[in-house]
Amino acid sequence: MISKKINAKSSFTxxxxxxxxxxxxxxxxxxxxxxxxxxxxxxNFSSLSEGVDISDEDFKSKNFEDFFKYFYDYIVIxxxxxxxxxxxxVKYCITLDKENxxxxxxxTGVRYDxxxxxxxxxxxxxxxNIEDVFSFLRK
Length: 139
Description:
Layout: H1 21-39, E1 45-47, H2 64-76, E2 80-82, E3 85-87, E4 90-95, E5 103-104, E6 111-117, E7 120-127, H3 130-138
Parallel strand pairs: 1-4, 4-7
Antiparallel strand pairs: 2-3, 5-6, 6-7
């Protein structure tokens, strides 16, 4: 949503782009995210669609209708009922902004924050240190 520049403090939004995006994703991000969710007992998780973004600024939006539509369309839309049981897949996004991730997982050391709906996490910000990305790319 911040990419639409709705109520953002700045018109600048940074995106990380690398030539070998799949290599970074498969070699760095997915292993880190998989271990993080595995240690939390979460097996049904996926990243937000490419090109979709959300930031802490979006939660300060004065236009609640747009915000909740966005939140529904990208985060909670996949909640469904299977065999009389509510299934809540978890969404996540990677952030380079440490401010979005005030918690630290004791088991993995990953910095994160979460959005909880009825005592169930539905969304995670997961912090990746840009220096780790550069180190990975240099290997």
